[in-house]
Fold this protein.
Amino acid sequence: MFYYSTFVEYVLCLCLLNQTRMKTIQLITLFGLCLAFQFCSNAAYSQSKDFLMGKYDYTKDTSFVKVPTQFARSNVYLKKETYQAFLRMRAAAFQSGIDLNIISGTRSFNDQRSKWESKWFASEFAPIKDSQQKVLKLLRWWSMPGTSRHHWGTDLDLNNMKPAYYQTTAGKKLYNWLLNNAPKFGFQQPFCANRTSGYQEEKWHWSYVPLSRNYLKAYIKQVSYADINGFKGAQNAKDLALISNWVLGVNPRCK
Ligand SMILES: [Zn+2]
């Protein structure tokens, strides 16, 4: 991403230096070509297998932004479009007395592997000897590395990640507001109630669908079970039909 932006800036500088010798129409044509090149490059990058599986550095990616800590925990990054939509939603929620804060945003493959393997060895799960049984238990709440929607910069966890919170008055108010209003800003709840497969319901996890819908489509086309490896329990992904049942086991409005 950085290289493409730099390339465009370089060409534009050359144009400006030589502008006395170039006709306006030539400058405009060149500018258009540069923009088209950048757009195509970004689109190809955004759909690459490495991007879809979180194998890139979002902290150095110019299409991402670090969310200020007044709106989020430290080190939360999102795709710029997701962040802009979140700000619009946040302003509207504020009018209703709701303060939206992001607990978790983008996570890389390595971030997810640390999380997954810390659970794998945690005292709660360590005694489970059968690998598939352990994976099934973990998959109630945690995604395998390379299969999380959090890899895309489109998905965020809001305010409180404990199901019990959503039984409280404040939690109910928050969730009802999101159900009624988040879609107006492009957000949907991927892990909603009443799905036939996939993760438990997560009332705090919302996805910016104008982007994530395309990433899901690209994921299904490009990622296969052979790509899911490099962590504990990865060998169980195929037998459990992880892509069909978990990656695709989402709210139909996210597809
Ligand atoms: Zn989440």
User: Anything to note?
Assistant: The beta strands are 64-66, 77-79, 102-104, 155-158, 187-188, 205-208. The CA atoms of residues 157 and 205 lie 4 Å apart. The first strand starts at residue 64 and ends at 66.
